[in-house]
Design brief:
Layout (H helix, E strand, L loop, with lengths): L14 H4 L2 H4 L17 E7 L10 H11 L3 E7 L4 H13 L6 E5 L3 H6 L7 H5 L13 E2 L2 E2 L1 E14 H7 L7 H13 L12 H11 L5 E4 L2 E4 L4 H15 L11 H8 L5 E5 L19 E4 L12 E9 L6 H11 L3 H5 L15 H6 L5 H10 L14 H14 L4 H18 L7
Parallel strand pairs: 1-2, 1-3
Antiparallel strand pairs: 3-11, 4-5, 6-9, 6-10, 6-11, 7-8
């Protein structure tokens, strides 16, 4: 879930940046490493942080079905109960101590960093056997053309909105940025807001909108990283939000603060551009209220590149360094991540191809709309060109600081991109990687 993306392989040339030696001697390049007594089952460990909440098909139950059908490959899944960053720290510590799991859940932005640190295996040969089972998110597990695992879920930006409130205001779902600004202004007159500029989410949220506008933040030039955060596509996004902030036609609340939830339940916030995975919990505060069943999902407006959206979150399952059975691990990895209906109950927008059923909870909250079909469309529209850098985790806090100032009016939204541009360069250099000037 939070956080992840749909990247193409960054180009083979960038492998020179990462230094391929860290993984070149490891197993996992295509040959089975089971060895030993052929009758003894291979044992695979899997560390995840899926929610396993009420009404969900539990990970242990899915794994039990695999174990029953595959006595020769037995899997033990362990749920990590901390947050995403805590799990990443746990994985890094355990892998470095030669005590890591065979398979571990990584956010797509974390894949390049784990690869550059030599914490994951190169399983390109095995991964390519399963490529046709997945959407374009398959590329998000790739760094420099070397694949570390398989995708699990995605986070394309979509538009959530209260259909009843829109009808009462006489506005429709905007298809363009100009239509969006016009609708926002009309709603604001009535004390309603069809969007919120969320300072605490900008690193992924604004980068995804840049992708929707046809831009990318990162690429490679020869054996160097190319940073282009402060691009024309980014400036289009900046102008879009700045115009509405200046007009006071959008809210400026942190997404994960109490005020956001209050604006939702008070009926002040009646729409927002957000990651698709929010469908799983966004409307929980509205259960058993008059607003229950009033909300819907649509595609985001055209940011200038046609029917395109950008990646905001999602994760995959990587094969960790030290895994003694990478081939068998990938067999389970491919099977598990194609259990589409089961994983959908976990609140995931599943990366595997298929036609997932809309969970009963979502049907009730979204007024019977088959939202998984709309989310599948967003998946198809997801930009395939957006990549992240090793050290991206250092970029987010800097961008958030500037975004908070923009929300208060002491900085501009464009400054967020300028800050992220320099923070990206600094992060790459701090990691000892070369940056094209």
């Amino acid at each position: 879930m939070k956080k992840s993306r749909k990247i193409l392989a960054i180009t083979a040339a960038s492998a020179l940046v990462f230094g391929m030696g860290a993984c070149s001697g490891n197993p996992g390049t295509g040959s089975s490493s089971a060895g030993g007594d052929s009758k003894a089952p291979v044992e695979i460990t899997y560390l995840h942080r899926l929610p396993d909440g009420e009404g969900m098909v539990k990970v242990d139950d899915i794994v039990a079905r695999w174990n029953k059908e595959h006595p020769e490959i037995q899997v033990k899944a362990t749920k990590f109960d901390g947050n995403a960053q805590q799990m990443i720290q746990r994985l890094e510590t355990d892998v470095n101590a030669n005590n890591g799991p065979c398979l571990g859940q990584l956010g797509y932005n974390e894949v390049p960093e784990f690869y550059s640190k030599g914490l994951v295996l190169d399983v390109t040969t095995e991964a390519n056997k399963y490529k046709d089972k997945f959407s374009g998110a398959f590329g998000q597990m790739s760094t420099g053309g070397k694949i570390s695992g398989l995708p699990q879920d995605t986070g394309p930006l979509v538009y959530f909105y209260n259909e009843t409130e829109f009808k009462n205001l006489g506005i429709t779902v905007p298809k363009t940025l100009d239509e969006f600004k016009t609708a926002a202004a009309k709603a604001a007159v009535a004390g309603k807001y069809i969007a919120d500029f969320t300072p605490d989410e900008v690193a992924f949220w604004l980068s995804a909108q840049t992708a929707a506008a046809g831009g990318v933040w990162y690429g490679t030039s020869g054996d160097q990283w190319k940073v282009q955060v402060d691009s024309p596509a980014s400036q289009k996004v900046a102008t879009f939000w700045q115009d509405m902030i200046d007009a006071k036609s959008v809210l400026t609340l942190d997404r994960w603060g109490d005020a956001y939830g209050k604006a939702l339940t008070d009926g002040q916030l009646i729409g927002n551009i957000a990651a698709a995975w929010e469908f799983a919990f966004l409307l929980d505060p509205l259960n058993d209220t008059p607003a229950e069943g009033q909300w819907r999902v649509a595609q985001i407006p055209d940011f200038g590149a046609g029917a395109k959206t950008g990646p905001d979150g999602g994760s995959g399952v990587a094969v960790m360094k030290g895994c003694e059975h990478p081939v068998e691990a990938m067999q389970f990895n491919a099977w598990f991540n194609t259990q589409v209906d089961d994983l959908t109950t976990q609140g995931l927008v599943v990366a595997a191809l298929g036609n997932p059923k809309t969970p009963a909870k979502a049907l009730k909250q979204f007024g019977g709309q088959e939202i998984m079909k709309e989310l599948a469309t967003a998946n198809k529209n997801l930009s395939m060109d957006f990549a992240y850098i090793p050290g991206f985790s250092a970029v987010g806090p800097k961008a958030v600081e500037t975004a908070a100032e923009a929300a208060k009016g002491t900085a501009k939204v464009a400054d967020v991109f300028t800050t992220a541009q320099q923070a990206s360069i600094d992060a790459l250099k701090a990691a000892g990687l070369s940056v094209a000037q």
